[in-house]
Amino acid sequence: TIVNLVTNGTFDENINGWDKWNGPEGCNTHATGTYAHQGAGALKVVNDADHSEQHLVQIHANFTKTLEAGKDYRISYWIRSEAAGSVRCSTSGADNYQGDQSTSDTWKEITWTITAIGGETGLNFDLGAKAGTYYIDDVLVVDLEEPAINLVANGTFDENTTGWDKWNGPEGCNTHATGTYAHQGAGALKVVNDADHSEQHLVQIHANFTKTLEAGKDYRISYWIRSEAAGSVRCSTSGADNYQGDQSTSDTWKEITWTITAIGGETGLNFDLGAKAGTYYIDDVLVQEIPTETRAASRMATFAFSHATLLASGPTSIEKSDAEKTEIIGAALENWIKEMVSHYKDKVNAWDVVNEPMDDGKPSALKTGIGKTDLANDVFYWQDYLGKDYAVTAFKLARQYGNPNDTLFINDYNLEQSLAKCDGLIEYVKYIESKGVKVDGIGTQMHLSIDSNKDNIARMFEKLAQTDKLIKISELDITVGTASPTVEQYAQQAEMYQYVVDMYLKYIPEAQRYGITVWTVSDNAKEHESWLPDDAPSLWNKDYQRKHAYKGFADGLAGKDVSADFTGEL
Known about the structure:
Layout: E1 19-22, E2 28-32, E3 41-47, E4 58-62, E5 72-81, E6 85-92, E7 101-103, E8 108-115, E9 122-126, E10 132-143, E11 165-168, E12 174-178, E13 187-193, E14 204-208, E15 218-227, E16 231-238, E17 247-249, E18 254-261, E19 268-272, E20 278-289, H1 295-301, H2 307-313, H3 322-344, E21 350-355, H4 383-386, H5 390-401, E22 407-412, H6 419-434, E23 441-444, E24 447-449, H7 454-465, E25 470-479, H8 487-507, E26 513-518, H9 548-558
Parallel strand pairs: 21-22, 22-23, 23-25, 24-25, 25-26
Antiparallel strand pairs: 1-4, 2-3, 3-10, 4-9, 5-8, 5-10, 6-7, 6-9, 11-14, 12-13, 13-20, 14-19, 15-18, 15-20, 16-17, 16-19
């Protein structure tokens, strides 16, 4: 069992024990609900100005015991900030200083291992360098030399790899490496994957836990890994399935941690190394139960029903932590894109990778369901679980699993109605590409009416043209407000269809024109049972006869009145 050397690292009920040593009055408060990383609360710190030193905004907690000289201690915590920020940990009593760590609006776990000078009495969070609002949660300080109950019997590999068996992979792929191949001590587990595989589990090394994991309890899995070239690893459990997200590896030793809330019935740990060929070294595997003082107790207390209540109400769901949700949702995103793109890659060479990301009320921000209680059952926002970079990941995966020359789009609606939303989408494309992935094109849906603002339509095309991206009209239709239009309304609709095509051809250079998709074929009610019922938005009427709109659209494409020299031949 892990012993935490700070008494209130979860902040579920309050921030007792965490005092302001430096900074403005009231800068440290208790944040609850969705502001927490997991559980019920977090420590909120507001720094109102950039300062010359980190320690000028400083929040402090005492250790439960003074640190001992020469002993190693690991400090870990989760942190996010509302904008780009900076944090540093330090100790009091005897001075140790962590290097400055960057923060963002996505939760991030930071670990810091120190060898104690001796006499350290407390931990500080130093947040003075960069103004902003910070949230800190799940602070854990552990004595690495305290005898720990490891739930795998041979995690050091000093003498052999006994207990670690190949479940999948080529014969002899798991061997014992000694000497300098170890992270520390005398040995390491060596695994050779001879080929890239479609699934991580196709090279899998397994060890049993010393006891079956208990439902609802939290467990921390940590390990050190390196590979001779760039590689990939994932942990999973047997008996009951939990999956870590894929983790990158390199020729430098790296510690990876994974915290799970047990489903119940987990009997063992797997290292899944099938995705990327290479030689891997694994050492210092540690599986520990997190004490009930920390997250498990607070979460389980929420579900303290009586036996009679449980019999009456049936099974109780225990919500996954934010980190676990991120891992699960991230794996689902990859699986969806991989299966879809791989299945159709012989038939499809262009994809709308990200659809409708921008918020309508805050057009420079991404949509979110956080704080909303009136969402439809089918509304789901990847970004609430994976952060702003969810689109970066999506484009990477589409490129990875598709054809090398596939054309990848981002797509949104009302860009002509809200030019601020158009600007927001363009800026988001720039952000995605700043992360090293390419967006080939931008789609504008263009669900219009006969009264849509023409100036905005033209300005939207001007803005999109300046991106140098491929531009497509992805879902064009034009409503008239009735299923039985007048002759005048038919004419207005035709004129608007032509105007859209005219402006597209005028402002979008030929090399950037990907094309125009008209949304639905006709006004037949069968095509509009869910989309635009009781209207007539299409180029053909309900009986599949060409409307005025058909000619307006054709005139736009031709750049002339096609009836002027029409002979009657089709």
